[in-house]
Write a structure and sequence with these properties.
Layout (H helix, E strand, L loop, with lengths): L1 H21 L31 H4 L3 H13 L1 H23 L3 E11 L6 H7 L13 E14 L4 H67 L5 H35 L30 H4 L1 H22 L4 E12 L12 E10 L6 H68 L5 H35 L6
Antiparallel strand pairs: 1-2, 2-3, 3-4
Helix pairs in contact: 3-6, 4-6, 6-7, 6-9, 6-11, 9-10, 10-11
Amino acid sequence: MLRIKRYQYIGLVCLSLGYAACNTPKLAKRTENKNVPASYNDSKDTTNTASLKWQDYFTDPYLRALIDTALSNNQELNITMQEIEISRNEVRARKGEYLPFVGIKGGAGVDKAARYTNKGALEANTQIVPGEERPEPLQDYLIGAYANWELDIWKKLRNAKKAAVARYLGSVEGKNFMVTNLVAEIANSYYELLALDNQLDIVKKNIEIQTNAFEIVKLQKEAARVNELAVRRFEAQVLNTKAMQYTIQQKIVETENHINYLLGRFPQPIARTDNGFIDLVPAVVQAGIPSQLLANRPDIMKAEQELAAAKLDVKVARARFYPSVGISASVGYNAFNPTYFFKSPESMLYSLAGDLAAPLINRNAIKATYYSANAKQIQAVYNYERTILNAYVEVMNQLAKINNMQQSYDLKTKQVAALAKSVDISNDLFKSARADYMEVLLTQRDALEAKFELIETQQQKMNATVNIYQALGGGWR
C-alpha cells in the first residue's frame, strides 16, 4: 500500500511538471518582409559603387588623410569600439553559463556546544576515535571540490548565448555604420570648406571691382556728372561686401574646428587643395540594384542581427516555463584533527544530487518576461523593415539630387556667364552716361549672388556624390 502511494505521488509530480511545461501562453507572430523593388530606375546593372573602398572613392589626398586620421582618433568611434568589447564579453559570460561550474573550497572552524543541552550531552557520551578522549572544543577542517551543472535540455542557455552573439555582431555592424557616417560627414565638411574658400575668393575680387567703381563714381561726382546719393550707394555696396568677407571667414573657422573635432584633435588649420572647387568633377556612381542594400548597409545588417537576437530571446523566455534539471556534486576531506585529514575512507566525503523543478503556480513574472520578449521581437521586425525602407528612400533621393543638381549647375553656369557680361556692359554704359548708377549696383549684386549660388550648387553636387556613397552602404570596408 505504501509503495502504491509512493507511485501516486511520483505520478502527481510528473503530471504537474508536464502541465507546467505544456501550458505555455500563445503569442502573436509576425514575419519580417524583406521584399524590395527590383530596381531603382529600371536598371538591371549590378555594378555597385558601395563595393569600393573609401580610399578608392575619394581621390583628394588631403581628404583621404583627414578620413584616415578620424578613423584612428575619433572619440565616438573609439567609444563604440569599447561597446563591441563589452558585447564580446557578454558572449563569453553566456557561453560559460551552460558549462559546468567547478570550484574548490577549504575551511577551518571550532565548535563548543553547551554541556547541559541535548547536543552537548550527546557529544559528551560519544567517542570519535576509540580509545581517545573527545577533543573539546571540537575543531573542523575541510578541503574539497564542488560542481554545479544545469542540463540545458531546452536550449535555454545556448539560445541566450546565440542571442548574445547576434548582439555582438550587431554592435560590429553598428560600428561599421558609424564609420560610414563619419567618412561622409568629414567629406561633406571638407567640400563645404572648399566652397567657403571659393566664396571668400569671389568676395575679395568683388571688393576690388566695387572699390574701383566707387573711385570712378567719386571722380564723376567731382565732375558733377552724378550726385552725392550715387557716391553713398556705391560706398554702402563696398561696405556690405566687405562685411560678407568676415562672415565667410567665421564660417571657415567653424568648419575647420568641426573637422578637427571629428578628427579628435584641438583646433588647427586644415590642409586642403587649392585647385578650383568649381571645376571639381564628381565621381561616377553606380547604384546597382536595391537588394544589394541588404548586404551593403551596416544599419540594415545591424537591424537583422537585433531581430535574430529578439527571436532567440523569445525562445529563452519560453524555456523558463519548462522543467529545469540540475546536477550538483562534491568530493573532499573533512576531519577534526589534521593528522586524520587524509585518512581514507573515514575522512573522505562526497555527494551527488540531481533536481528537477518547474514553475507551477503564480507564473506571472515568467509570463510578463515572455510577453515582453515577444513584443520586442515584433518591435525588431518593424525596425528592420523601417531600416530597409529608409535605405531605399535615401538612395532614391540622392540619385534624384545628383541629376537635378547637375541640371541646375549647367543653367547657373550660363547665368553667371551672362551676368558677368552684363557687369562689363553696365560699367561701360555708366561711364558713358547711358546707364544710371542703380543699374550698375543691381547688376553687380545679381552677379555676386549668382556666383554664390553656383558655388552652393557645386557643393550640393559634391555632397550628393558623398551621400549616395553612404546611402548605398559604402565607406566601412
